[in-house]
Predict the 3D structure of the following.
Amino acid sequence: MEDVKNFFKNDTFAEHLGIELLEVSKGRAKAKMEIKDHHLNGINIAHGGAIFSLADLAFAVASNSHKTVALAINASISFLKAASGGTLFAEAKEVSINPKLATYDIRVTNETNDIIALFHGTVYRKKDKI
């Protein structure tokens, strides 16, 4: 899976946010993001867009782990608990896959394993290889 990890080193937006890819296996991925001041919104909690981006990277890596280009066609997130500091983790797991579509669930948790957000996404699987 080193080639998949290397492919996602090109994700400059995730790098800009400080998102680090921790693990990759077929249909799975785990990433983390330490909450910094630039991740906070106007009421000093982690911005929903930052949390979504963390989950989205795990989603992207898990869905492309089969080494076939996969592009999101739908994604939704539910925010369950606020986070204002520490480190967040996003863990993506494949729910279903066929030649054209695949679905993933991503849990975003904090350091004490509290669920911060639940993300659900579907990808279209192209024939192109990564």
